[in-house]
Amino acid sequence: MFNLFKKKKPWVRFYSMQPGVAQLNPWIPANRVKRKWTKDVLKKYYGKDSKCPALQVKRMWEHYNHKLNNDVEGERYDGLFQHAVTCPAIQKIMHTGWVVVAPADFLIKTHGDGHDFGWLSQIMFDTGGPTYVKAHVPEQTEGMRETIVPAPYEVLDTTIKLELPWRVQAHKDIVFLQVPVPYYEDDRFTVPTGIVDPAYSYEVNMQLFWHSKADKEEKEYIIEAGTPLAQWIPFHRKYLDNSGIDVIIEDANDEDRKNNKIMDYNRYMHFTELTSLNERIDRQKEILDLNKNKERFD
Q1: Which domains, and CATH codes, for the chain?
Q2: Cys-Cys link to 27, which of 98, 120, 151, 172 (CB 3.0-4.6 A)?
Q3: Tens digit of pLDDT per residue, the chain (298 long)?
Q4: Order of strands, edge to edge, in the sheet holding 106-110?
């Protein structure tokens, strides 16, 4: 039955000028990006043996006894609750938004001089002129590219520019934060971080700051179709303007200190190994709502 009172969701539309891309290499929800390191960790700690109640209790006993005795093994205890994969902040950044992937294979060849590159692909996208891979000359990114690429990599002077077949439309209140795909195991390139506003930028072009690794000879790299390139995280346009947010910076008061003690109690109320991340987050939210300082602003 049609609901006249159902509130319409804000919307985002990614459309491809090249038939087939939307079906074979579409944008994917960020939470579907496969990372080997998270898979390995979850297999290690969430395997069949790890779920055995008797084994869980045995490991807990060993851990806390090591800890009470200041044993080094206590610090090395491999309980999943201590691994960064369970950190809510890391989970959120890895699972929010959408990821654009390479729509077709392309090959990059560095010349060993750190300055230029060659490329090959079997396809060119007709987006106002047949193209796929282009370049920004060094002058266009001078002074900034070295600040983006993490150590110990060196960065190619010439920036790789991908002119993708994608276009974007969105609800008038939606803008996107573009970031490199977080915690993804690909050390060949880094995309720049920036804010994409579909109100005036509908083309989806991608700059790749290439990690030359100080190549001293010619070397070829293949970026396969489906390779994650960048992540787009949506947020409301109003948050582009800091003046629209009241920011208070002050010392903690008695209510804050009281709430903090409740949070400390909650942290150790249950054995962490026997509770899920979602259970801990839900309890934390309930406790944060007890802080009466919220009444000053709500």
Answers
A1: 10-238 (2.70.40.10), 246-298 (no CATH)
A2: 98
A3: 556 667 788 999 999 999 999 999 999 999 999 999 988 887 776 665 556 777 777 777 777 777 777 665 545 554 545 677 878 889 999 999 999 999 999 999 999 888 889 999 999 998 777 899 999 999 999 999 988 887 778 899 999 999 999 999 999 999 999 999 999 999 999 999 999 999 998 999 999 999 987 677 899 999 999 999 999 999 999 999 998 888 899 999 999 999 999 988 988 888 877 777 788 888 988 988 888 888 888 7
A4: 117-120, 106-110, 219-223
